[in-house]
Amino acid sequence: MAAVQPLRSGISALPEQRPIIEIGGLEKRFATRSGDIVNALTKVDLTIRENEFVSVVGPSGCGKTTLLRILAGLERASSGVVRCDGTEIAGPRPDVGVVFQQATLLPWNTVLSNVMLPAQLKHDKSAEAVAQAERLLAFMGLRDFAQKYPFELSGGMQQRVAICRALMRNPRILLMDEPFGALDAMTRESMNMELMRVWSEERKTVVFITHSIPEAVLLGDRVVVMSPRPGRISEVIDVDLGRPRTLHTMATPRFGELCDRIRAIFGAQSMTATSL
Q1: Residue 191, CB half-sphere, CA atoms under 13 Å: how many?
Q2: Other CB atoms within 10 Å distance of the CB of residue 148
Q3: Residues in domain ABC transporter (predicted)?
């Protein structure tokens, strides 16, 4: 198992929290149409604690999204163990919400109906479900847009709706696959602040996939750094920055040191790959 490497003596992220996700010896292999076998993930070991915010960063094609899909129960591991609350993940779970790279809203539904979709799939159109959807929209600053359609919203607002939809079932775990990657820089920063507010107030366990090193450090209690394919964990880094964090946190020397350390890991990976 990749050891958590504290950057300063005595630092350990959330030691009092109990494990909620346990990954041991995870391997994922895909068969191509030509019959070749592609190793997407190999020897992945990781424990994620309850209410922890874990960022996962790595190069394109390293298996980040595959890892998240396995945690979501949308893919099965080829070998190894993946457990949630001590139970093997064998399919989608009601206590897990997922936010994808694109908002994937139904264009013919209003914002409120899109948020209501998880309840509607269970044939729940009760007043309580409607009230929950309206509360989430208000929480995300979208109260006045409940009867709008997705095409009437900006990209950032559409992603807020997607987050509301993921929170509709009040999941304990929120899995996010580069949800802000398609947004412009200013909107992305705003969404980072919004997500930290949601996490601090709702106290979910979050696994957040990103290509952005600064984003990973700003958001995470820990940053999981993955290697090129076959993806494995190169290092797990504690982010010893206080909370609450703001955009001003990115200007601090310690923030720069953490980002530089992750860049150095990627640099060493590139040198290793070139020498092979």
Answers
A1: 23
A2: 15
A3: 21-253
The count of domains in the chain is 1
Q: Which helix (H) or strand (E) holds 47?
A: strand 37-49
The torsion angles phi and psi of 20, rounded to 5 degrees, stand at -120, -35
Q: Domain span at residue 129? A: 107-169
Find, among 103, 58, 159, 74, the residue nearest to 66 by Cα.
74
Q: pLDDT tens across 96-114, in order?
A: 999 998 889 999 999 999 9
* Both tokens assigned to 44: 């992945």
**Does 139 reside within a domain?**
yes
Backbone torsions φ then ψ of 256, nearest 5 degrees: -60, -40
Question: Are 223 and 240 within 8 A, CB to CB?
Answer: no
Measure the CA–CA gap between 75 and 53, rounded to whole angstroms: 22
pTM, two decimals, is 0.87
Strand ranges of the sheet holding 19-31, from the earlier edge strand across to the other edge? 37-49, 19-31, 79-84, 87-88
**Separation between Cα atoms, residue 83 and residue 71, nearest integer Å:** 9
